[in-house]
Amino acid sequence: MTLEKLKKHFPWITLVILVVLVGIMDPSFLSPTNLIRLAADISTLFIMALGMTFVIYIGGIDLSAQSVANMTTVIATLMLPILGVGAALFCIVVGFGFGFVSGFVSTKLKVPSFISTLAVGGIALSVGQYASGQRALYMDAEMRDQAFGWLVGSTAGIPHELIIALVLLALAYFVERRMTIGRALKAIGAGELAAVASGLQVDRFKMFAFALSGAFAAIAGLMFAVKLSGGSPVIANGFLLPAIVAVLVGGTPLTGGVGGVLNTFIGAMIVAVIRTSMLYLEIKATDQQIFFGIVLIAAIALTIDRSKMKTVK
Amino acid sequence: MSDFVSKEKLQKWAPLLVLIALICVFTFANSNFFSVRNFARIGIASAPALMIAVGVTYIIIMGSIDLSMEGAVAVSAVLFATLFIAMGGSLASWAWLALPLTLMIGGLFGLLNGLVHVKLKIPSFMASLSMGFVGIGLSLLITGGDRIRVEDPLFRSLLTERYLGFPLMVHCALVALLVGWFIQSYTKIGRNFYAVGGGEDLAHASGLNVKKVRVLGFMIAGAFYALGSLFAVAQIGIAETATGYNLMFVSITSVVVGGTALWGGNGGVWNSLIGVLIVNVINNGMIVIGLPRYLQDGVLGVLVIVAVVLSTDRKSLAFVK
Questions:
Q1: Partner residues linked to B186 by β-bridges
Q2: How far apart are CA B312 and CA A166, in angstroms?
Q3: A18 touches A278 (CB < 8 A)
């Protein structure tokens, strides 16, 4: 196998190397229960990153995901007594709507996605603060268990959050590989002008990618709300950058057209392993950020495939 | 439209018109807005953000992006405070050396950032994002999470001493802006930023050492971030890891609102001045007219979109990422 062919496999090779390295230093890290818990702990972040992958895949960025998730925790808590399980659908529709607005501002008004999603994130933050009355809300335990009990708990030792994350991954993978939209997004990411020239409804597909990202962020928010049994407009803070990092480390660069949702799965696992390894290696709290940053540079340097980039901006 | 006001001219001045329009709207809503006292307040809030924005302007002109400023500011602020106090704790003593040293620290951080980006061939978005984590981490390592107080009255005079109604730091920031303008327009490296942003292949083909230009750009940006961190410390008299909080989004938003395109090759530091003022006038105006706190993020978002739509030339673009 040539190096060229091997490059595609760098992300998961990096993941395996990291796992083995930490495993050598502390064998208990490799126990199945620990690895499953590690995967389950990252599932919310992973779902957010999954949606973001579609936007990064077309060369954009979604900075609203965290605020949309925050807002969703509030909406889910408020809607639970009224809609029951239907609150989930309501949240996803709202998330989809916010994503769509980002997409509309970005494609139709030609505002760069960095700014448009940041601005829409600000709107989501305001909605969340307004709806919650700027305080933390709590779900009624009985109602929560009745409507969303299936979201928490575990079957045969596998936590349900992990199962949901994997189902969503399968769904996103299907969209990416087997549906017209997936192919269209790849075409847009690889070369937008060529996609326009070949008659593709580029704007429509782009807006849909942003909307999908919003919907996935809402699902992540919903899972937060159920797990923590409540909502607040700041509950998911600190998730935005790690989610972006998960997408990038997995090998979906911001240039678009390369990578995909499976890469994001590996990227999220790499982030999880780096984070957990810090506990195993007994790295002090004050040293963790710098450790994370340096390992991140190493991981990105290893995983990204530069052969398709003409210039590195 | 008449020949006197051509479309290009209008486009060029659009950000300034947006700023003037905003000032008129807020003055109309509450006449207290239009006072030297309030403008000084806006100036104080803008000074650190302006320095960060000037630094990142060069990077954006090159078509790259820098997300490391929060880390860079945290490191510079914390190291400045540590050095300043260790060397005597007053500008009247040898501790004044901490000022130039801090600028060098910022430059060094930027140099490292640029080297990671260019030598490891990591796109600037990811390289600088990671370096941001490293910067935050480094400042945590130095302080252990504590705050460092900088109480020297001479240093705090940046905030307390006023000339023509504006604190010293506003004047300093304007001088630094002139230096930034000089670098951009009257030095070789400044011209090269535009060459790289306008078309990297072409710049490379005509014999320009693009990699060197990029690394130098990040280094100069780092020095400006350090200057911003000094103003930020002077503002509240405290240096901590959170000193750089939110400066990343504010500065990049300002640069774009001011009319510098994220794909590089146009704009400049004057645009960034207007952009920073637009963002800070909106923030200040919302408080002056008594808009509830929970609405401010959303209103800022909507106004930023409107400002970008009005103030940037997007007609000639085939697509936007």
A1: none
A2: 42
A3: no
Q: Which residues of A245-264 are buried (b: 16+ CB within 10 A; e: fewer)?
A: bbbbbbbbbbbbbbbbbbbb
Q: What is the pLDDT of residues B227-261, one digit of tens each?
A: 999 999 999 999 999 898 889 889 999 999 998 88
Instruction: State pLDDT tens for residues B154-208.
Output: 888 888 888 898 999 999 999 999 999 999 999 999 999 999 988 888 888 888 8
CB B106 within 8 A of CB B218: no
| CB contact at 8 A, A276 and A38 | yes
| A254 neighbors A248 (Cβ within 8 angstroms) | yes
- Indicate the residue of B116, B125, B301 with minimum beta-carbon distance to A122: B301
The verdict on residue B272 lying in a domain is no
> Which neighbouring-strand residues pair with B239?
B148
Torsions phi, psi of A189, nearest 5? -65, -40
Alpha helices in chain B (DSSP H): 7-29, 36-61, 69-86, 98-119, 124-143, 153-160, 168-186, 188-198, 200-205, 210-236, 247-257, 269-288, 293-311
Q: State whether residue B208 sits within 8 Å of chain A by CB.
A: no
What residue segments make up the domains of chain A, in order of their start?
40-263
Q: What is the largest CA-CA distance in chain B?
A: 64
The residues with which B148 forms a beta bridge, in sequence order, are B239
Domain housing B193:
35-249+259-267
Mutate to test the interface with A, among B240, B257, B305 (most CBs of A within 10 A): B305
In this structure, is residue B77 part of a structural domain? yes
Domain count of the fold of chain B: 1
How far is residue A153's CA from residue A148's CA, in Å, rounded to a whole number? 10
> A116 to chain B: nearest residue by CA?
B305
List the alpha helices (DSSP H) in chain A. 3-6, 10-25, 32-41, 43-57, 65-83, 86-107, 113-132, 141-148, 160-178, 180-190, 192-197, 202-228, 240-249, 261-280, 285-303
A97: tokens are 């709507």
pLDDT at B1: 43
Q: Quote ipTM for the complex.
A: 0.84
Cα–Cα dist B142/B273, whole Å: 33
Residue A293 and residue B131 in contact, taking contact as beta carbons nearer than 8 Å: yes
**DSSP character at residue B187:** S
B132 in reach of chain A (CB within 8 A) = yes
Partnered with residue B173 across adjacent β-strands are: none
Whether residue B7 lies inside any domain: the answer is no
User: How distant is the alpha carbon of residue B154 from its chain centre?
Assistant: 25
Contact A188, A195 (CB under 8 A): yes
CB of B308 within 8 Å of a chain A CB? The answer is yes
Collect all residues of chain B within an 8 Å Cβ-Cβ radius of residue A113: 320-321
Side chain identity at residue A254, one-letter code? L
Tell me how close the Cα of B261 comes to any Cα of chain A, in angstroms: 9
Token pair listed for B255: 């640069």
Alpha-carbon span B18 to B310, nearest angstrom = 7
The lowest-confidence range among A14-23, A295-304, B103-112 is: A295-304
Q: Cα distance from A11 to chain B (closest Cα, Å)?
A: 15
Q: How far apart are CA A35 and CA A280, in angstroms?
A: 13
Contacts of A292 in chain B (CB under 8 A): 133, 137
List of chain A residues whose C-beta atoms are within 8 Å of the C-beta of residue B193: none
Considering only CA atoms, which of B309, B204, B213, B296 is closest in space to residue B256?
A: B309
Residue B295 is assigned to a structural domain of this protein = no
